[in-house]
């Protein structure tokens, strides 16, 4: 059973990801959720994490709040995608749960270093600020981790927040650069992969057909985002980005990709936050990430539906 920490800025796709992990106790042990400012400000990402845990009856999982904004500059949120709360589309009751004591980067260090070397995996679903801060606090952190699996970046697909950059990397490129230079084994899931994971009408119908209150809530939460994407891009559904991180742990056979060197552009006026992926090995730089670019989308949604259906019929 693999111990993991999930760093997240909940919009609904983040929540589906950590709920899938919590529904997989035979494979994954979730040590904590850590929240960061991202899609919406930190107070809301933390609140959304707590609301989703409460809905799932999983108040036993600690949630630690972390950085409110990136290492440099102001936070760029994405209310246009997920609504003002980050959880628009369904009214969940305000959470009775509270965040646990402690600053997320400190807790990441403690939780990882308390375990044997090479055991804990960080699952990163958000701007990488908390992880970069944790590495800054404990220089041995990178070599103590089993690895990092992150949703972020783009290769041929182009960006979703600027023409060049994907949101999670664009918000805090300095943090991303630190992580990609750290030597930690990284599995990177860029937009090239997640844009194959569309919440089509048929898949949304399967989600709703689970028939639990949790499934009904996520049907509506994801519908909000789906409608945004349909308006924006004319696709049947929107990308269900972040659960790919958990799926890659549970079912690596659903993915394929290649080892490559990934550089993070921190300076370009047009390209800040771009992930420069040496797909063809022209730079001579050693690979620092496994970049997953292909997904068995049907198998992925089968897994998502199966894991979400494990939450009770309260
Ligand atoms: C990323 O941005 C967020 O909106 C999603 O949760 C995902 O982590 C996709 O660019
Ligand atoms: Ca996210």
TrEMBL record:
Coiled-coil region list: none
Keywords of this entry: Glycosidase, Hydrolase
Protein's recorded name: Nucleoside hydrolase
Top-level taxon of origin: Bacteria
InterPro entries in alphabetical order: Inosine/uridine_hydrolase_dom (IPR001910), IUNH (IPR023186), Ribo_hydro-like (IPR036452)
GO molecular function: hydrolase activity
Ranges where the Inosine/uridine-preferring nucleoside hydrolase domain occurs: 4-301
UniProt source species: Nguyenibacter vanlangensis
SUPFAM superfamilies: Nucleoside hydrolase
């Amino acid at each position: 059973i693999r111990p993991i920490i999930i760093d997240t800025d909940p919009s609904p796709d983040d929540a589906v990801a950590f709920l899938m992990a919590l529904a997989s106790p035979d494979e994954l042990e979730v040590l904590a959720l850590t929240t960061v400012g991202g899609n919406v400000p930190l107070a809301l990402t933390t609140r959304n994490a707590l609301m989703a845990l409460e809905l799932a009856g999983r108040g036993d999982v600690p949630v630690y709040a972390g950085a409110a904004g990136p290492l440099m500059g102001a936070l760029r949120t994405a209310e246009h995608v997920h609504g003002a709360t980050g959880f628009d589309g369904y009214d969940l009751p305000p959470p009775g749960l509270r965040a646990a004591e402690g600053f997320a980067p400190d807790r990441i260090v403690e939780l990882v270093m308390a375990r044997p070397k090479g055991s804990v995996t960080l699952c990163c679903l958000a701007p990488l600020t908390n992880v970069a801060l944790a590495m800054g606090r404990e220089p041995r952190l990178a070599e103590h981790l089993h690895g990092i699996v992150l949703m972020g970046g783009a290769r041929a697909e182009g960006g979703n927040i600027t023409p060049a950059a994907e949101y999670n990397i664009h918000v805090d490129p300095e943090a991303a650069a630190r992580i990609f230079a750290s030597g930690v084994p990284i599995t990177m899931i860029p937009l090239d992969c997640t844009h194959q994971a569309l919440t089509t009408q048929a898949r949304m119908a399967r989600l709703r057909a689970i028939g639990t209150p949790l499934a009904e809530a996520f049907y509506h939460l994801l519908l909000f985002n789906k409608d945004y994407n349909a308006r924006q891009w004319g696709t049947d559904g929107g990308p269900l980005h972040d659960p790919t991180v958990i799926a890659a742990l549970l079912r690596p056979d659903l993915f394929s990709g290649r080892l490559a060197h990934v550089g993070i552009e921190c300076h370009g006026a047009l390209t800040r936050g771009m992930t420069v992926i040496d797909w063809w090995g022209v730079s001579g730089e050693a690979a620092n990430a496994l970049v997953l670019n292909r997904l068995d989308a049907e198998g992925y949604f089968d897994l998502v539906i199966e894991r979400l259906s494990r939450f009770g019929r309260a």
